[in-house]
Amino acid sequence: MASVVQLSVPKSNTTISVPTGLFINNEFVPSLDGLDPIPVYNPATEQVLCHVVSAGEKDVDRAVTAARTAFKTTWGKNVTGVERSRLINKLADLMERDSQVLAELECLNNGKPVKVARDFDIGDSVACLRYYAGWADKLVGQTIEVDRKTKVAITHPEPIGVCGQIIPWNYPIQMWAWKVAPALAVGCTIVMKPSEITPLTALKLSELVVEAGFPPGVINTIPSLGSVGGAALSSHLDVDKVAFTGSTVTGRRVMEAAAKSNLKKVSLELGGKSPQIVFESADFDQAANWVVLGILYNTGQDCTAGSRVYVQDSIYDKFVNLLASKAKELVIGDGFDERSGGGPLVSKTQYNRVWGYIESGKQEGARLVVGGEKRSTPGYYVDATIFADVRPDMKIVKEEIFGPVLSVGKFSTEEEAIALANDTTYGLGAGLHSNDASQCMRVSTALEAGTIWVNQYNLLYNNVPFGGKKQSGFGRELGSHGLEEYISTKAVHWNYGEKLDWPL
């Protein structure tokens, strides 16, 4: 049995117990590979919280074997939709029961405020599990007419099999739920690789998997470096599908490994450089609220972050000043402080990356409107930073930053706004703000992204599909479309009357 650590919760007399081993076959176990353990940090203090076991290739093999055995025996086609639904709902109930503890653990390891983790990430994750629990006994095939006198064809939606799921560090619990819920609903088994930066909540959720009553091997959790565990899952010959959320660079590697191994099914939710367009007819105050939400929620560590904003020239100066005043109102601080609406960046690496972009913006001549100064206190904190008067060739405009850094440019015509918004290799999200209904329809149709928000931004719903275009990936999560990523449709051709003459 692997060890358990006790983590102290700031500003209270409580502790949280967290298992630090690999979760395979409903047990926390040590590694077979003997790799160095992974240090896990608190980004608010820059101090090590604990160390967790790091999975190697032998451990990935062991987890995949456990998932395959469960798929063939106690899960897959061997359990009814009603039972799958019951267990998923039970897991949701346990997550809801433990939402405060999970939120505190998320804050310790990821840095996001407890209230945000509890009320939004975990609240939405519970709802996601319940949404897909409702689908588990409603998966239907078709009866297709071929020849009414002699033949019929029937389709069966079958679970694709063992799924490797690789999730990022920006939404550790929510991305876990987005991947796990649809896979379980259709009957797949899972080998989950959480980010090596934020593995703690995935391990804590694994305890709830046992408590909910899932058979051993249905869900396995293997913290590991991406270059080890992620690579092993992507290239594993007994994994039927890999789902990845993360950077476009890593997504390419996942897709290449999947192609070179067994051509496993792949779904990718990758990076973004999402635009928002503010037209002169927009409600200024509301548009400004949505724009700052789009870049400052989760301290900008969001694949759909609206990091490029284009404002019509007739309202440009007024709107930039309004954005600056709104951005200054957000408190970015200790996640255990109820006043904080944003926390530190997740790691030193990410902190240095974001500051590199801020310095680049200054050097390339963008006008710094707010922020752009380092704090002298511990923690990977970056305050809201807004650059105005940007050019399309600037790094801060072209490349994904993944921090609270906003680039603001201007346009004159609707056509120019659309061209600026679509001038990117990404296509995950886009937004527009206008009170002209015809304009909203024209522009939303012309924007090249998987999700378009009109007079709002960054709100997602469990019954609405989400995914990207271009180099933001392919495949869809959420909604009924999310189920399709884990289904293999079998067609059965049934001849009950035709006689074959031979030879031809």
UniProtKB/TrEMBL annotation:
- Per UniProt, residues of the Aldehyde dehydrogenase domain are 36-492
CDD domains recorded: ALDH_F1-2_Ald2-like
**Which keywords does UniProt give here?**
Oxidoreductase
Would you say which domain of life the source belongs to?
Eukaryota
GO terms of molecular function? oxidoreductase activity, acting on the aldehyde or oxo group of donors, NAD or NADP as acceptor
Active-site residues annotated for this sequence: 269
One Pfam family this chain carries? Aldedh
Give the record's family classification: Belongs to the aldehyde dehydrogenase family.
Q: Could you identify this protein by its name?
A: Aldehyde dehydrogenase domain-containing protein
> What organism is listed for this UniProt entry?
Hericium alpestre
